[in-house]
Amino acid sequence: MLNLFKKTKPKNIQIKCYETRLEINGIELTFPTNYKTLVEILGEPSKKSRTKLTRSYINCWDKYGVYCNYASSDNILGFSLILSKNHSLENFPNQFFKGEILDSNRKINHHELTQIGFENYVLKKMTYQGEKKPYAISIRLNLNTRKEIPRDKYLIKEQNEEKITFKDFGFKLAIIQELMYNKELLKPKFNLNEFTLWYKKRKIDLEKEGYEPIKEVTQYFKDLTIPKNLAFEIKEINQDGGNEIYLNLIRSAEGNEEYWDIESSEDAKHFENLKKVSLCYAKENVLNELNEAGIKTEWL
């Protein structure tokens, strides 16, 4: 039976830009956003995949020409409107963006757009290797937006309870992924963009410094205390290039970094309930050591 009341998604999309928000086909969106909101606006993606190196997620809406790449479905910082094939994107939409963008009610010629900054987000044309015509319009969170961040949010406070002493930084990072991002037991949940706004001893420029480890960020995780009473929560470790811990250490990680490799399995002794490990950033000896210790371990 035909459902005459069923809503259908329009063939093209209309994006209205206001100072603190977007409206896409009449539905409000602010950044960071999430997968559920994008599906509410655009429907289910026509293509889903993951990047080869960083293993971050790719969603495409072919009929709208929309491309979205993200590490966490609850923390999506932006998306792109694809205008041509002049790029190196993986698994991009098979149709180009044909909708319209309005600054309030004034239509924007997106082929001539360079950059427009709003309080919460930025529209910016993306070009490839010296091409003049853009291959996409990127709509993303404005990283220069100043938010009220509690002064003590990223201060590491002395704890009265016993803490785990780690020998291997890479192993500690894998544990932080499980406790901070997967189970949300270790607070606060570290956000690189927010940390750079919070940090006052110097200006951290992610556009310039986001391709290498940032010493202040590295030091934060080295100093971070993990209470011993959380050790029993660790039953498995799943390393993945798209893990939030890695994307919050190096903003523009390529996926082949050795900076966070696990070099020793010695720290596994702290986690009696650890039974299963999946590795992608580790030295060869670690796999054998963990298996010999009775922990089922394999490469991703």
Polypeptide structure, described:
The chain is built from 7 helices and 15 strands. It has 300 residues and is of the alpha+beta class. It folds into 2 domains: 14-141, no CATH class; 169-299, no CATH class. The N and C termini lie far apart (47 Å).
Summarize the structure.
By secondary structure, this protein is an alpha+beta fold. It is 18% helix and 21% strand. Mean pLDDT is 89; it is low at 1-8.
Mean pLDDT: 89
So how many helices? 7
Question: Which stretches of 5+ consecutive residues score pLDDT under 50?
Answer: 1-8
Number of strands: 15
How far apart lie the N and C ends? 47 Å
Gyration radius (Cα, Å) is 22 Å
Order of helices and strands: EEEHEEEEEEEEEHHHHEHEHE
The portion of residues assigned to helices is: 10-25%
Largest sheet: 7 strands, antiparallel
% residues in beta strands = 15-25%
Q: What is the total domain count?
A: 2
Quaternary structure: single chain
* Biggest sheet: strand arrangement: 4-5-6-7-12-11-10
Q: What's the shape?
A: globular
The helix/strand class is: alpha+beta
